[in-house]
Design goal:
With 108 residues, the chain is mainly α. It has one domain (2-107). The protein is 78% helix and 6% strand.
């Protein structure tokens, strides 16, 4: 149940980011759920490998932010209805998702 709640919080955060940032195109809330699932799967697989390989290179907070932007770019490649114009928009979306997800996670 907690996993589903975390995915819904992430989906709401992605949807909010898609609405706030004009460089991010998302077709619907269902699309934001798909984006949240794909980014979570990428984080578990590719993200874990990248964190192990680059351990100690960058500060963990900044690296996590950059890693999330990279994973968002990869998700853009996989999902047809989800478009991020460039890396800077992905970085902005990662920041919005982190802030909104943190606020919603604290409330829920």
């Amino acid at each position: 149940m907690e996993l589903i709640l975390q995915l819904l919080v992430a989906a709401v955060a992605f949807y909010a980011g898609g609405q706030l940032l004009k460089g991010v195109e998302m077709t619907s809330f269902v699309q934001s759920i798909c984006v949240a699932i794909v980014v979570a799967l990428l984080d578990v697989t590719l993200g874990t490998v990248l964190k192990i390989v680059t351990l100690g290179i960058l500060s963990l907070g900044i690296f996590t932010w950059l890693l999330n932007a990279i994973l968002i770019q990869v998700a853009d490649w996989f999902l047809p209805g989800f478009k991020v114009k460039n890396f800077w928009w992905a970085l902005g979306l990662a920041a919005v998702v982190s802030i909104v997800g943190g606020i919603l996670g604290a409330i829920v």
